């Protein structure tokens, strides 16, 4: 919602401010479709050249995130803490044999099924089950630091792929001013071909050519650049969920007391999504 408001404010202030100060919008609006065709088409072409089909689909999903915001809400973080702490408690009190059926078939586990929203994220579920499977098959011989290293690599790999849409958008934003210059140069070439025309016609053609430079800069710093920044914010906010899982598992493997495990889980969560200590601690008593 805020993004739509921002776009409206941007357009209103730029074009409205130009008109308010006495500028004539007619030449700008006349040139806008042609310049947009060149700049926008070149931008899309550069994205196709520089990305695979999978990355282009991820880019479309990244753009959707700009408007939707993070998919994980406060309750999701709370549920994740409850889920992983319950699994680690089962490992500690009942042993690997009791835990194994849950991590091998989470879709049929009564524990996992209590958290249907988390089950919709296969990456999150695989991070939990793959890590705990590693602990189970090692029969407790793995040092917690080794488990932490494996999880760090997994999260790092996930972060790299998740942030690619934001990076692609930023690359496009960096290229748009230059593509605007390309459109402007083509406009100048067109103008030079009509050098015998009257000054008022030449002036209008030169003004149209300059719209290309204006449009490239506006799109880069007014739209695509902010889109890239917002996409990165949203993606990083969702990645915090995976760090929460890591903190709980590692702290539990070190046999830290439950209050410290809870604080380790809460420490990396953004304040707006961070459940209180009492909320987590009291919630665990009912489970």
Low-pLDDT ranges: none
Please indicate the percent range of residues in DSSP E strands (runs of 2 or more). Answer: under 5%
What's the end-to-end separation, in Å? 37 Å
Radius of gyration based on Cα positions:
27 Å
Helix content: over 70%
Largest sheet: none
Characterize the overall form. Answer: elongated
Written as H for each helix and E for each strand, in order along the chain, the element string is HHHHHHHHHHHH
Structural class: mainly alpha
Count of extended strands = 0
The tally of helices reads: 12
Domain MotA/TolQ/ExbB proton channel: 141-238
Pfam families: MotA_ExbB, MotA_N
Subcellular location: Cell inner membrane
Transmembrane segments: 201-224
What does this structure look like?
The mean pLDDT is 89. The relative contact order is 0.15. The protein is mainly α and 287 residues long. The protein has twelve helices and no strands. The chain has helices at 2-20, 25-50, 53-68, 74-93, 96-104, 116-119, 122-137, 144-162, 164-192, 199-253, 258-267, 277-285.
Question: Care to give the gist of this entry?
Answer:
The chain crosses the membrane at residues 201-224. The chain has 287 residues and is mostly helical. The chain is built from twelve helices and no strands.
Comma- or semicolon-separated keywords:
single chain, 287 residues, chemotaxis, mainly alpha, 0% strand, cell projection, 12 helices, transmembrane
Q: SSE layout and pairings?
A:
Blueprint: H1 2-20, H2 25-50, H3 53-68, H4 74-93, H5 96-104, H6 116-119, H7 122-137, H8 144-162, H9 164-192, H10 199-253, H11 258-267, H12 277-285
């Amino acid at each position: 919602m805020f993004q739509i408001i921002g776009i409206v404010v941007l357009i209103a202030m730029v074009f409205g401010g130009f008109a308010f100060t006495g500028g004539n919008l007619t030449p700008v609006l006349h040139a806008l479709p042609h310049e947009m065709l060149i700049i926008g088409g070149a931008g899309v072409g550069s994205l196709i050249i520089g990305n695979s089909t999978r990355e282009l689909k991820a880019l479309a999903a990244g753009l959707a995130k700009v408007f939707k915001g993070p998919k994980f809400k406060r309750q999701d973080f709370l549920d994740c803490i409850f889920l992983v702490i319950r699994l680690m408690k089962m490992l500690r009190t009942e042993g690997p044999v009791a835990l194994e059926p849950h991590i091998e078939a989470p879709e049929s586990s009564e524990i996992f099924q209590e958290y249907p929203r988390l089950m919709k994220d296969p990456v999150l579920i695989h991070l939990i089950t793959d890590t705990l499977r590693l602990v189970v098959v090692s029969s407790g011989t793995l040092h917690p630091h080794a488990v932490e290293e494996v999880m760090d690599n997994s999260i790092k790999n996930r972060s790299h792929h998740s942030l690619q849409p934001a990076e692609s958008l930023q690359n496009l934003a960096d290229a748009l001013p230059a593509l605007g210059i390309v459109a402007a140069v083509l406009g100048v070439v067109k103008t030079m071909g009509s050098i015998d025309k009257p000054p008022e016609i030449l002036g209008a053609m030169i003004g149209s050519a300059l719209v290309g430079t204006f449009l490239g800069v506006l799109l880069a710093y007014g739209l695509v650049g902010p889109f890239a920044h917002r996409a990165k914010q949203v993606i990083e906010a969702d990645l915090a969920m995976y760090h929460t899982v890591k903190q709980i598992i590692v702290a539990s493997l070190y046999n830290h007391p439950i209050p410290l495990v809870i604080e380790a889980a809460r420490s990396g969560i953004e304040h707006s999504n961070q459940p209180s200590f009492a909320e987590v601690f009291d919630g665990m008593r009912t489970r």
